[in-house]
Amino acid sequence: MAGKKYRKALESYDRTRKYSVVEGCQILSRTKISSKWDETVDVSVRLGVNPKYADQMVRGSVVMPSAPARPSACS
Fold this sequence. Notes:
Elements: H1 4-11, H2 21-30
């Protein structure tokens, strides 16, 4: 059984419709359930490449934000 905020968030968008990236980001900001937790987003992209061939390899990197500096317990 889901909570009230979760059910309200599910009702705020159509699960059968495909949204653009911009629309999806807008939906994410509207459906924030709690300020205690950071939501995660999984993205699947069909690129249509065959990774067996060297000329079709796909590689990438993402710069993640750094964590706030905290004093070490060992020092």
